[in-house]
Known about the structure:
By secondary structure, the protein is of the alpha+beta class. 35% of the residues lie in helices and 19% in strands. It contains five helices and four strands; from the N terminus they run αααβαββαβ. β2 and β3 (106-112) form a beta hairpin. The radius of gyration is 20 Å and the shape is elongated.
Amino acid sequence: MPEQIDSISLKILKILQRRARIPNVDLARQVGLAPSAVLERVRKLESQGFIDGYEVRLNPERFSRGLVAFILARIRKLEDEAPVGRRLAALGGVQEVHYIAGGDAFLVKVRVEGTRELGRFIREDIAAIRDVTSTRTSVVLSTYKETANLPIEQDEA
């Protein structure tokens, strides 16, 4: 870690990853500090960039987004990485875009209603990006773990 933080701040981060909406009083009780001290620490962690934001995880099934697919996209020239990456990221249904090493340039995670929508997405949305030369798609059959949580250990303090 570029900046060192103490074990109490690490404990706060671990708790917030599990329960971002935990009341400050409960958080303070769990780490053994006064609520005002915990609030000050959380604000400091936010300002120092340890906390990027807070999100609610929605049930994708309730929004007709039950199909997850990973699309490997190859591009014409590697110099076009940034503009192509931004265009991929702007497409509806795209949850993640990663520039990767290897023969393909991008790994794109999408959530769509089903295979018909996935096919349309690849044929129309991705194909409309002129510098994408080919794609390979893997459809997720089952998910056993999906998280944005980072492993935080006490010895990192």
